[in-house]
Amino acid sequence: MRSLFFTLLILSFLASCSAVYAQTKQPDERTLFSQSVTDLPAVDKVEIFAVEGIRTNRKDIDCTQPDIVCSMISGKILASKTLSGEDANKIADLWRDLRNGNGAACFAAAYVLRFYQNDKLLLVTDVCFHCCNVTLPGTGIRSICGDREAFVSFKDLVTTELPFPKLETKEPDLR
Description:
Layout: H1 2-24, H2 29-36, E1 45-53, E2 68-69, E3 75-84, H3 86-97, E4 111-117, E5 120-128, E6 133-136, E7 140-143, H4 148-161
Antiparallel strand pairs: 1-3, 1-4, 2-3, 4-5, 5-6, 6-7
């Protein structure tokens, strides 16, 4: 009888510990991906920036400059476009269709997207279409290649709305 009492006491203690743990643990990465991607709330404005990455310590970057966009990866703005209404919804709908998958490792983000609802910023994400990765709050760099068709549709719409500008390249002086 005594061992039954101690067994029940230990089981109730373990149950209460697991309940406390469940309430205090951080959401897993799948939940954070869902919050930022598949469950993104309704939007009424999306800003798209074509950027050239800045290879410097972020402390050295003046994020108040009008030609700089600061997110997880800072970049010099080469071009931008703001979409609203139905155009913003098209991008957001395709964004929500993206699925986590396996991306490559280059991460040279050429685009930054900002999603808004009633002028409230919901999400800022850096996007690299080469390696199929984005930055998400709380998770860092995540792949969006889980559904190839959804990825291609999203990429095509973003790059159609704001084609990446041709950069001038300097020919090396071979003299």
